[in-house]
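Homework help thread (please don't just give me the answer)

Our assignment gives two proteins as sequence + C-alpha cell strings and asks us to describe the second one. The first is just a warm-up. Here they are:
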Amino acid sequence: MKLNRRQFTKAAGTGSIALAAAWQQACSEVAESGQVKTETVEVLLDSQGSRGIYQEVEEFERLRRAVGSMIRTQTNLRNFSVDEDEQPSTVFWRG
C-alpha cells in the first residue's frame, strides 16, 4: 500500500492510525530507497509523545538509521523460510 502526501497527512492526524500509517510509510521508504525520511521519523516520534533526547541532531540521526535497520531486520525475519516439519525452539507445557 503506497500513500500519497495528502493521505499520509490526513492519517497522521488521528492517534493510532497515525502510528500505523507512519510505520507503513517508513517500510515503503526503506523498500524504495533503503532509508527512512526525516519527516516520517518525526511523525513516528510525535505520535508517541515528547521527542526527548531526539531533539538533538546527532541522536535523531542515530534513531533514523536504527528505524531503517529495524525495518530491514523485520523484513529479513518475515522472509526467512522455515520447513513445515521444523519443531519450535520453545514448547509450553501445561502442568
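The one we have to describe:
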Amino acid sequence: MRRFRYIALILALLLVFAGCEASSEAMTAPASFYYRVSSSTFGKQDSIIASERRESAGCEDDLKLLIESYLEGPVSGKLTSPVPASARVLGVTRENSKIIVEMSPAFAKLSGIDLTIACSCLSMTLLDYTDAEQIEIFVPHTLLDGNDSIVMERDSLMLLDNSLNSPKETQ
C-alpha cells in the first residue's frame, strides 16, 4: 500500500511539473512571444510589454500555427494576453518582407491603447521570429479604430517610455 502511495505521489509531482515552461536550452526552436505586462508601470523598459521564450518547433513554415500558439496566451503569471480570448487568426500571407495577418471579428473589439498594444505585441512576436520588415493586421470588412488595417514596421516600432528620463524643454 505504501508503494502505491509513493508511486501516486511521484505521478502527481510529474503532472504538476509537466506544465512548467521549458528552459530555452532544452527548446529545439525557441521563439519570443510578446505580451502585455500584468502590472504595468511606466518609465522603464519592459514596463508595458515583455516577452517569454516558448517552443515553436513546427512553426517555421506555418506562421498561422505560430500565431495560434501565441493566442493561447502566456505561461507566465506576470504577463497577460492583449488579444481577446475569443479572437482567432483566419489567415496569414507573406508578400516579400511583409506579413499580412487576417484576424477574426473579435479582434476588432479592441480600440485605442489596447489595440495598439495588441498589434504591437503580435507584430513584435512575428518580427522577432522572421526576417519580415512589416506586419499588417486586419479584420475582413471591419475597421480597426477607423483604419482598414494596422501596419507596423521593424524600423518604426518602438515602445520605450523614456519620458521620465528626458530633459524638460525650456522656452
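TA reply:
I won't write it for you, but here's a hint about the kind of observation we're looking for: The longest strand covers residues 30-37.
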